[in-house]
Amino acid sequence: MANHLFLPLISPILAAALAVIFTHQQWRWLARGVVLMSITFNLGYSLWLIWLIGSEGRQVTQASNWIAPFGITFVADGASAIMLCVSSLLMLVTVIYSLSSLDPGYENFYYYPLLLLLLLGVSGAFLTGDIFNLYVWFEVLLLASFGLITLGGSRPQLEGGLKYVVLNLIGSTAFLIACGMLYGTVGTLNMAHVAERMQRVQNPSIVTAIACLFFFAYGSKAAVLPLFFWLPTSYHTPPAAVTAIFSGLLTKVGAYSLYRILGQVFQGELARLAPYVLLIAGLTMLVGVFGAMAQMNVRRILSFHIVSQIGYAIMGLGLASAAGLAAGLLFTAHVMIVKTALFFIGGAAEQIYGTGDLKKMGGLARREPALAIFWFLGILSLAGIPPMSGFFGKVALLQAGVNQGAYLISGVAAFTGILTFFSMLKIWNEVFWKKAYGDMSKLPRVTPGLLLPGAALVIISLALGLGAGMLVDYTNVAGEQLFDWAGYVISVCGDEGCEAAFEAALR
Amino acid sequence: MLTLNFILALTWMVLQRSFSFSDFVVGFSLGFAVITIAQVALREQLLETAKFRRHQDIGRYPLIVWKVLGFILFAFWSIIKANIDVARILLRPRLNINPGIIAVPLDVRSEVGITLLANLITLTPGTISIDISTNRDTLYVHCIDIQDADALRDDIKQSFERRVIELFP
Amino acid sequence: MTLFELLMTGLMVLTALSMALTVIRLLIGPSIPDRALAFDLVMVHAVALMGLYAVVVDQDLLVDAILVVAVLGFLGTVALARYIEKGGN
Amino acid sequence: MILLLAIAIGTLFAGAVYLMLRRSVVKLILGLVLLSHGVNLLIFTMGDGVRRAGLPIVDSSTGIAEPGTTDPLVQALILTAIVISFGLTAFIMALAYRATQAVQSDDLDDMAHTDRL
Amino acid sequence: MQKQVSYESIILRVVARLMLPILLLLSVFMLLRGHNMPGGGFIGGLVAASAIILQMIAFGPQEARGIIKINYLILAGVGILVAAMFGLPALVADLPYMTAFWIPEPIPGIGKIGTPVIFDLGVFLTVIAVTTKIALLLAEEPELFPLAMADDQEGGAPQV
Amino acid sequence: MTLTEWICFGLCLIGVIFMLLSSFGLLRLPDIYTRGHAAGKAGTLGIIGLLFGVGIYYGDILTIAKMFALIIFFLVTSPVSASIVERSAFVTEVKMTPSSGPNDLKGRYDEQGELQ
Amino acid sequence: MLLLIVLFAFATSPMGLLARREPRVLAGWGLAILPLIIFAALCAQIPVITDGGSIVEAIPWVPAMGLELRFSLDGLSLLFALIISGIGTLIVGYAGAYMEKDVGLGRFLVYMLLFMGAMLGLVLAGNVLTMFVFWELTSVTSYLLIGYKHDYPDARRGAQQSLLVTGFGGLALLVGLLLLGAAAQQVGVPVNQAYNLDAMLAAGDQIKQTALYGPALWLIFLGAFTKSAQFPFHFWLPGAMQAPTPASAFLHSATMVKAGVYLLARLAPGLGETPLWNYTLISVGGFTFVFGAIVAFRQNDIKALLAYTTLSQLGGLVLMIGLGGKYGSEALVTLILAHALYKSALFMTAGIIDHETGTRDLNRLGGLRHTMPVTMAIVTVALLSQMGIPILLGFVAKEWALKAALESTLPAPWPTLGLMAVLLAALGYIVAAWRLFKQSFLGAPTPELLTRHVHDPKPAMLLSPAIPALLSLLLPLGLLPAVSSLLSPAAAAVYGERFSFELYLYKEVNLALLLSLGAIALGTLLATQEQRLAAHRVIATVSGAELFDHFIDRMLALATWMTRTLQSGRMRTYILYSLLSFLLFVGLPFLAYGLDEMRIPYDAELQFHEIVVVSLIPVGIIATIMARSRLGAIIAVSSVGAMVSLLFVLFSAADLALTQLLIEVLSTVFLLFLFSVLPARFRSFSPAWVRWRDAGIAILFGMLMTGLVLATAPSTMFPPLAPYFLENSLAGGKGANVVNVILVDFRGLDTMGEITVLFIALLSIYGLLRFRTQRNALPLSGNEQQRPLPGATSNGSHAAPVPTAGSSREEA
Ligand code: NA
Ligand code: NA
Asked: Where are the domains of chain A?
């Protein structure tokens, strides 16, 4: 058994507890060290896990040593490993960015422990093989995000945060209802067991409604079309570092869960719902990008793009195939990195001007050329321009779509791509190219701490693009693993499957 | 404090519904821990009560026990009587009551004593103590049916306060 | 069902009805202290129902639960009253 | 029993929804509280038969449960859900209070600035 | 803004002080019996927190701070640490996280002791710390930062 | 039915009747102050009777002791609840039913909530 | 080799930064060595290609996507690569002189070199996806070049427009290529070869049979037409003249705009020769050919005039591909070469005129023949070549174009249309050229010009336009065999079979020659009427650019309206959306599929007190809704919580009931802590219809939930997990309270998460209540919520905390 799968949870939780215990000024260095060590450990571990899964396949263990499907199963496959890796990477970079961009006050109020706990929730969500346990990790990450988004207590944060919290709570409630109804219908919570029992359900039935319930729940976390309003209303309100890590992680956990639950566990239902999923995907892309076009604030534009990009992720799901899931994973991993980078860089620009209002910014390309270069590369990546990673995400999705005959959604995806570029160029034009109105010499300069995290991520995006061969191979494997529910069942419950294990245990 | 610790140990055993020695040990140590945690509150209360305690009361343990027992019986009887009284009022076909609030001057001084008195008044016929003046010399009592306010005041002072003051000054 | 259980169940029904009366006061108020008082009595009824239920299903495990409910009733009522005062009229 | 519970659940959800659609911060919170009651009851009905008798406590010497014991799993799940929603509710209360403080109004419609174009 | 009034209550104070040790004892009782009877870390922790919250109601949050002098934030961290660490022995033994280990014989007066009991203790500590601290924070908030409502004179916000 | 069960039933019945009375009083009495009497007293006796009955049912001394503890708890707390609710009604100026009785408390609270 | 060339181009591009310092003239010509090296390396390959060989290099990039880093050199790519690197050399040198006073020259040259690398990659690519990669890079680098003078709104606008149009086309192209790839896979090409150009073309005949061919082709056309500024996507090209002239000369004459043509030429041998292909290209190309030529002479800006002749010329190239056949291919490659030479010369001289006189407005120029004789000579040669006057390369090319139309085997009327287009365009060119020449060099200088000291620039600047102009003249005079041997493999690559052809100046009097001469004569005649023609509204020129801008504006307005409508900021609206989606997402499938499973169970065990407890729940809810005060509502909700706990008791869930009640009471206490200080009374002023609407939604929602419960709860499809926990609780979990054993053992991880949630709640609330930054105090309006004044603070940190009672760390 792969008992090491618990390490990425134990590490942040212990570190967070220690960091809280050591908040006193004189122990500050210790708290910071613990935080950084924990995240670095997670990053290293997830890289190792990627390698391990690449060579040995899925990793499974049972919490508290109770056999599946009764205990809580932890499973890592390609998809979880990729997501785990990207999230710890983003977290590490965010911590570094925060150290240089945030007021020290944040540290007094447990900013770093909250980040760690966010990472804990995210990691748990990626690794668990139990639907209710997934709910718990979701709540962990949500509550951490609630704390982070309101930390600082400015009026916009409070106003936006309240909407963020309440709308997310509705999603969580739906999730909980779905868990309950699932247990009521199929009598189990273990994902593998559910997947197996789904095969014996008379279709279509109430199970379809339950699948839709899950779609609603995760959809509202992922910010799909009629459920995204919490995102643009709140994401621009906290400090840039928080927005950046949110953009990287939160909605993506929703997307991941959609992949895991609908793409794998409810695969039969997904096949039936695919057209609607694609419809929602397309509308989400368009509405998101239109929203971005209407905005005149750096982070608000970027926030709406999150919505739009979730549309792409959902498109991967709606294709209902291994290729679609693989492409979606690739796209999601890419967008997590690049989006975070753009928020970092945008945040740096915002910090220079003291505002994110495009009308009040300008002339940054001359003053901070390095910032400009990385921003430009970032938007190239986001717009899917080769050789940045975004190109491969886009092409993978389009390829999957076109190969499966989903022409309309592919067209919409392509069209959204150019609109994305358009609205990102608006920021470029207004912030970097346009002449500054006032005297720029009074403005603060960008510090390495503000520049480097974003730059590093942009470079990673470039590197992922140049090394896309390996990446795509891996995501393809991950997509196949995700789509192969039967293999998943065997990994979790053994060759006989979960039902056999269930019956044997009760005999 | 030691008494309290014993009481807590006893309470523990009652809760556990097991009067074995090990339970006593555990109960006693837990009681100790709890007292340690709550010592600030408890110490204040004990000091406050001790301030008003007269010297002659100390060392008359049997008398105190006797008084306590008597007090409990009295209290129970009062409570039952009170309930029946109120029931009678409630079940009257027409409500014909004359409620009001009276002020009762207090002789009892300690917080515990005042509390005991106030609670007793609340539990007994047709009266509820509402509040005690900040300087602790007046108790305000709501009565459901006042025929004679002064008689009521005297009754309270004679039957209740006297008994209370014997236990807690 | 034995006669005893039947009788006790009958008592539960009575208690439940009594509680319903209390809840009506809670519904109609009119003042906030009225509602607080009604809430206190609801909690008392809850304790009563739990006691009766413990007898009906013969589960002495519930007795400790009653203790906790009693504590809560007190806490809730006291809190309500204190904050009614704080809030003013 | 299930019918009874189902109606109770429906009522709780309906009440929650109505309250959540109000403009008052406090009503919103109360709506969320009702919502979590509704969900908890809903999960409860999903247990292995909702039965009146039989606490999910096994005989402490034999380890055998009485026949007809209720489903302990849903109880555990609801417990978890209750505690989680407690944390959330406490947070929302604090947040709502702070927002009310900042906006100087408990009217949710006054808290619409972050969306202004 | 509301006027700040105290409305001290002697009887409440006395009863609250009296209840404190008893409720704390009750909370430990609920904790320890949890594994075999209704109770456990959560319920125990919440009962203990109720005991402290009762002090806050009776004395006000500021004074209640003085009654039990604990840094609840650190206590919460310790609780989490205790709960999270109990699963580590299993990992060392190459078993999954949280696999239970038990001392074979029950300890008189307490019962069987094993890692799940320690876990429950961690839960207990966390719940006490979290609930109490949240209560303290919430209770102090209106006192430190009173509300100023724009439409105070109209007696409340409009409702739809 | 055994004797214990009869005793138990009887005690419980008394308790329930008192509880009914208290709810009834809560509905019937004219103002909050008088309702407090119904709730505070009848409710207390009701619960005492009931808990006695339950204690008797289990029969063993330990359970009865526990019930006693519970009863003492109620005796300590319920008057406090009643009293403090009444006071809250008074300080928030909930109207009293018209009567010829005295009102010695009227106007005794000052601005700081101190009682003279 | 090829890989090295592309790599070299990219890797050396940062060297452009060397030109940041003085003397920039030297830096320019110094850096020109970089393209020159490439040019030389390519020249070294000429023999291989003219011998009929080709070079292919491939390294895998993303095999799973069929994306291979594959480069191949054949006649066509060699021709293009030579043009790119050759003219690139001249342009880099020219830029150093032209932008001598511009501190940004370094940056500019980096862009230029990057662009050249992208362009080389594009023409050398042997895999359509690789080609697309470079295609996009050319768009991006050209964006940077066009927007080089980004302080000017027009430059930004032009850059954005060109990027949007070519980017849009690029996406269409991508989808088109992916469709082609899908078609290739359908006909049996393996995935990793599906985008390989050779494999694709080899399977061309089968691909043409698939249903995907048509759509794919349309999308590819879209890509090619936008890139090559074909009507109606032409408008970005004049806008792109905002680029510094060296960039225009490079991008918009010789290289980037030809990428579309190149792509079509590349695909022609395998995927061409279908009616769709030929007729579309002839129509679009022919129309653009004529349109550009006619619009050109109406322009007053030299660069605009050149831009229109360029797009016209691009139309001509597309037309040639459309005409196809051997002659079409020959004409195509000849035209490409001729155009590259004269147009780059013209652009560079236009730059010189601008540079020296300070204007490009034809109406403000004049009489430059005296002051800028050398320039005039270069312009004259280039213009003559463009007009197709004999002995210049343009003449030869025009001859071949006429021949291509005349010899075409396509059905009527397509060849005739092509012919007409060639002739009409030729007329237009003559008029345009005459207008340019007359307005700038003849007549008298304007007073403005007289005040400036106008003269020919230094040789460093003149050299670059002189060379291509000279080549336009010299190549036909004796070098035609060499040119033919270079162009033959190119034409063969377009045609798809090996063949060779010989260019000649004069062989015999044939129809083509006569037509050509006739056109020249007629053109000369028309040129005398140039003033009247220029003023005449021959074609009501709808400015595509304005239309495009209008389109963008409308789209933005739509976006704003939509966002305002959806993102209203009101919580209840958002909740409403959420609830309605719930009804939609869950209600509909439930009605469709789940309704059958709903059953109303009969329950004999139901007891009266349970009914009472349950029915008190709605009573409590109604009390909450009706409550006139906050506290009243809070109390009512608490009573509902008490009822729910009681229900748990009655249904044997003691732990649950206790926890629920504890939490209920604590939540109530928390609410009291915070909200009892709000003004006591609610005001309830909602319009009745809103309340009824909400009540309706609430009831629907409640019914749905009831229905869901009734459909799921009583049915048991599968045995549940529960018995296992009951069986193993004492034995495995060492506890009799199964619920607690589940919490701390079976599902201990849930509990771990759960206390973590509490922990986080504590930290969050602590921060929320005690951490207050200054941002609080600031006014809030619209997008603006932070420090409103740029530069108001020198401190880089986010915000300074206000010292508050709790902001320092507290002890307990
Ligand atoms: Na079921
Ligand atoms: Na996000």
From this structure: 3-506
